[in-house]
Design a protein that fits this description.
The chain has one domain: Clavaminate synthase-like (Double-stranded beta-helix, 4-Layer Sandwich). With 324 residues, it is α+β, with helices and mostly antiparallel strands. The protein is built from seven helices and 17 strands. Helices cover 21% and strands 25% of the residues.
Length: 324
């Protein structure tokens, strides 16, 4: 008999898929697949269903190289350029290096640390944030360096009816902004100034595939609420950010080399705790994101670009950059 906490789906040429939930609201481990080769249609469908239901899914012991990572990602969508602001690795424009000491981590020490510090949804400063992210572990510390995810649909459902009615009509400004004293200098600020991105998104979005209402409140990139004074905006956002990172909406993943995490970037936020910088251990992962669409709010109005172009596929991005 299959455990009530396990689901069996679609037997294919790779065998039977087992979906093992890790918490009540988010996260499941997928067993019985080999991502180094194309998945049979039945398995692809089962993985996709688990992805939508559990928001982040994990695959152990896959040991993919860069080319296999790209091929695996293409089964689920069109890869973007590695990172719209911070670039890509040489030879693989679809892949972004999530290294311990990368530019995106620069100047963090100058920022105010709060309970929601570091939590984010990928590239929400773009008018069309990626619909999914696929992260592959390569160099993993023996302990430390875990990753958290939180379910923003469950967080929305956990608000009071009065608060849901209030936030349903709000919109927020998302942006990459200089860190530190705001002056030019440093790799992070140079990247941000070279590729400015700023967009307005509904604070509550309607998920394009599940129809769920999602509290789209990325702490690192959501800067203000449209139509509010700075103090009003700060207070309402602090309340929402504190809410979305409540432990009951989250899952914590302990990486091993060869593990892969794939998450729905439209309905989650994630966090890499800063404990890795208190050790001498190295940590190297590689990420691919899939092209997304502008988000749609409860009122049917979509995201609006304020500065910068949409996130393009890797091929389109390279052509655009060559023409500039």
């Amino acid at each position: 008999m299959v455990s009530p906490l396990q689901q069996t789906a679609g037997a294919g040429t790779n065998g039977t898929i087992e979906v093992v939930p890790l918490t009540l609201h988010i996260g499941a481990e997928i067993r019985g697949v080999d991502l180094s080769r194309p998945l049979p249609d039945s398995q692809l469908k089962a993985v996709r269903e688990a992805f939508l239901k559990w928001k982040v899914i994990f695959f152990r012991n896959q040991e993919l190289d860069h080319a296999q990572h790209v091929a695996m990602a293409r089964q689920f969508g069109e890869p973007t350029i590695g990172h719209a602001v911070f670039g890509h690795i040489e030879g693989y424009p679809e892949i972004y290096s999530v290294a311990k000491n990368r530019a995106a981590n620069e100047k963090y020490d100058a920022m105010m640390v709060t309970p929601w510090f570091g939590w984010h949804t990928d590239v929400t400063a773009a008018v069309n944030p990626p619909c999914a992210s696929i992260l592959r572990g390569v160099t993993i510390p023996p302990y430390g360096g875990d990753t958290f995810w939180t379910n923003l649909a469950a967080a929305y459902a956990g608000l009071s009816e009065t608060m849901r009615g209030f936030v349903d009509g709000l919109r927020g400004i998302h942006a990459f902004e200089p860190r530190g004293d705001g002056k030019a200098g440093g790799a992070y600020n140079e990247h941000v100034e070279r590729r400015a991105l700023k967009s307005e998104h509904p604070l509550v979005t309607i998920h394009a595939e599940t129809g769920e209402r999602v509290l789209f409140a990325s702490p690192s990139f959501l800067k203000s609420v449209v139509g509010m004074t700075p103090r009003e905006s700060a207070k309402i956002l602090e309340l929402l950010w504190e809410h979305v990172v409540r432990p009951e909406y989250t899952v914590r993943f302990k990486w091993n080399p060869g593990d892969i995490a794939m998450w729905d970037n439209r309905s989650t936020a994630h966090l890499a705790p800063r404990d890795i910088f208190q050790s001498d251990f190295d940590r190297q992962l590689y990420r691919i994101t899939l092209v997304g669409e502008p988000l749609v709010g409860v009122d049917g109005k979509s995201s609006r670009s304020i500065e910068g172009r949409p996130v393009l596929s890797a091929a389109e991005e390279l052509r655009t950059m060559a023409a500039e």
